Amino acid sequence: MLAALPLPHSFESRIGTALLRRATGDDTDAVIALLSDDPISAARGDVASAEDRPAYAQALLEILAEPSNDLLVVELDGKVVGTLQLTSIPGMARRGARRLLVEAVRVQSGLRSSGIGSAAMRWVGEDAAPAVGAAMVQLTSDAARIDAHRFYERLGYVGSHRGFKYTVPQG
């Protein structure tokens, strides 16, 4: 876990006060539901099947045990409605600049455009990045996520690079 993060953090959204906090094992099912609520993630296999739960639970434990990683959730009225993963990466480029990588940003589909995602991402840039000594926040977004691209651009993110992925053959 990224111990330096200023958590928990309350913020206002259009639908009420939300709380950004570190995930715990008790949040596993809620995070799985958020991943499966997204059609692109679901197409990749995040379908919230019971047989996959142990893998997700183990991943959460590993993320929280790793000093350069964290998984956060957003609560609204006591219910988890959002999540994101942060990874602090030291680097040689840009004169040794540290980067804060944001991944798996999800807000419950019925609550998108409520200000929850915007507030969480502003917190990443304004509070989390300085707390871990990052000079830059970076993220990747699937090429099919046109609405997400507009969302990040409205927040000041620049589509400056083209990302590539390689799926490692299993078996």
Description:
It is built from six helices and six strands; from the N terminus they run E-E-H-H-H-E-E-H-E-H-E-H. The protein has helices at 28-36, 39-43, 53-65, 93-96, 116-132, 146-154, and strands spanning 9-13, 16-22, 69-76, 79-89, 99-107, 136-139. It is 33% helix and 26% strand. It is globular. It is an alpha+beta fold and 171 residues long. Helix 5 (116-132) links the parallel strand 5 (99-107) and strand 6 (136-139). It has a six-stranded mixed β-sheet, sandwiched between helices. The chain has one domain (9-154): Gcn5-related N-acetyltransferase (GNAT) (Aminopeptidase). The longest helix is centred in the C-terminal third of the chain and has 17 residues, at 116-132.
- Contiguous runs where pLDDT drops below 50 for at least 5 residues: none
What is the CATH topology? Answer: Aminopeptidase
The helix fraction, in percent, is 25-40%
CATH level-4 homologous superfamily: Gcn5-related N-acetyltransferase (GNAT)
Radius of gyration: 16 Å
Quick one: CATH class?
Answer: Alpha Beta
| CA-based shape | globular
Helices and strands, in N-to-C order?
EEHHHEEHEHEH
What is the CATH architecture annotation?
Answer: 3-Layer(aba) Sandwich
Mean pLDDT: 95
Give the number of DSSP strands: 6
Main sheet: strands, sense, barrel: 6 strands, mixed
Number of helical stretches of at least 4 residues: 6
Q: Span between N and C termini?
A: 31 Å
Strands across the major sheet, in which order? Answer: 1-2-3-4-5-6
Q: Please identify the structural class as seen in this structure.
A: alpha+beta
Proportion of β residues? 25-35%
Domain tally: 1
